[in-house]
Design goal:
Largest sheet: 4 strands, antiparallel
Strand order of the largest sheet: 3-2-1-4
Strand content: 35-45%
Shape: elongated
Structural class: mainly beta
Order of helices and strands: EEEHHE
Distance between the termini: 41 Å
């Protein structure tokens, strides 16, 4: 059986993206919100989870209210370096 795939390369790098912290109301636990970027040997980038929508970086309280996020917990930190659109240069510059 032949498998068709849209990814041509094999993974060569994995980046863990720190999107911020979330406090869960039920037990007070603080959890990290993260995503992942996989780069392949064919220079492909595969983004897994883009983080919070842009509106959250503009106004956390209003956005959380619109989405009823407050029913579950609260965002206590957002990492501005990993907001949507800011991951384009990952792995391209000097280490």
């Amino acid at each position: 059986m032949e498998s068709n795939t849209f990814v041509k390369g094999k993974p060569v790098r994995l980046f863990v993206l720190d999107y911020g912290l979330f406090k869960v109301h039920t037990n007070g636990r603080i959890i990290g919100i993260c995503g992942y970027l996989i780069q392949t040997d064919h220079d492909e980038n595969i983004l897994i989870d883009t983080g919070f929508p842009k509106k959250y970086y503009d106004d956390i309280e209003r956005s959380a209210a619109e989405d009823n996020l407050g029913e579950f917990g609260e965002i206590i930190a957002l990492n501005q370096d990993n907001r949507p659109g800011k991951t384009a240069g990952i792995g391209r510059g000097a280490a």
